[in-house]
Design goal:
Layout (H helix, E strand, L loop, with lengths): L2 H28 L1 H4 L12 H20 L6 H26 L3 H25 L1 H5 L2 H20 L4
Helix pairs in contact: 1-3, 1-4, 4-5, 5-7
Length: about 160
């Protein structure tokens, strides 16, 4: 496969996962999420879509860089499996938090997601330093999202 097409497919796959999460997120933003208590540091609702779009783009570029390596290499295979796992956790968080309206369960899940992202960065770093660095903003945003998730859970403890 030609490199530009592979890059486009990697980015598109990541953005598609983001769109899947948005199926659960978008209706809840003006519905359930609008009705619950949120901390003072909660960003405006409009910020989430562009931030996540950018982060999924970075994930796609990072994935592309790894897929350009020797796919028969055990380290590459392992890194890709961890990437897929964190990817599934990412989409699952949206389902739990926004779809099921379960901030407590979503917080437990986002902690696991955070460690999975960190592990992905560590594994990617063994293969391609730039691929790993592309995931750092994602880890930082998920760190913030975890704090936000925890705060929402505490502020709405009866949910």
């Amino acid at each position: 496969m030609k490199k530009p097409l592979k890059l486009i497919l990697c980015v598109a796959a990541c953005e598609l996962a983001g769109a899947l999460g948005a199926i659960f997120t978008t209706p809840a933003i003006n519905g359930w999420y609008a009705t619950i208590n949120k901390p003072a540091f909660n960003p405006p609702d409009w910020t989430f879509a562009p931030v996540w779009t950018f982060l999924f783009f970075l994930m796609g570029v990072s994935l592309y860089r790894i897929l350009e390596k020797d796919l028969k290499d055990r380290t590459v295979k392992s890194a890709l499996m961890i990437f897929i796992a964190q990817f599934i956790l990412n989409v699952t968080w949206s389902i739990i938090f926004f779809g099921l309206h379960r901030p407590s369960d979503a917080f437990m899940e986002i902690v696991v997601l955070w460690f999975a992202i960190l592990l992905t960065i560590v594994q990617f770093h063994k293969i391609d330093e730039k691929a790993a660095l592309l995931l750092v903003p994602y880890l930082l945003w998920v760190s913030f999202a975890a704090l936000l998730n925890f705060s929402v859970w505490i502020l709405n403890i009866n949910l």
